[in-house]
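Structure tokens please, single chain.
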Amino acid sequence: MKRLSRQFLVFALSTVFWILLDQLTKYLAIRYLKGELPVSVVNGFWDLCYVENRGAAWGMMQGQQLFLRLFSIAAIVWVFWNLRKLFFRLWGGAFIASLLVSGIVGNLIDRIFRNGGVVDFLDFHWGSSHFPAFNVADSCICVGFFLVLITQWRLKPKNAQTEDLREQDGSHEKSAE
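Here you go.
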């Protein structure tokens, strides 16, 4: 029980931290970048700019606000539903779940309170190649999803681990006879 409480505390505190950081950086982008030319952070590679994205990742599903809001809510419910049986079993799972939830919530806040537009401001490019602008919430979602994939590769289902142990000690053959 103590371990579960500690994991939930990590989840809750890091979720609040990432949501606050996302909303603070978006506020600063609105305040200082809206209506202005991009600001170069690393010349020829990284700019800060103001972009309103009314779709999903990379501008897909433009104008589908109701669907995107409902999908976001469903994704948050799915993460909460799976906190104990999936995320808290993973190494760093509480932190991973917090990244996913805070990213989804951060963009959902924009969709609800900023007239449907998600504020993006991190703009990376290399020569003529350009990556669509994004924000802290998008980063949380991407990093969280990547970490889920990495940790899932390392996690074996319990019955698969039991099967491996049986094969190693020969008990599988004995139980089959």
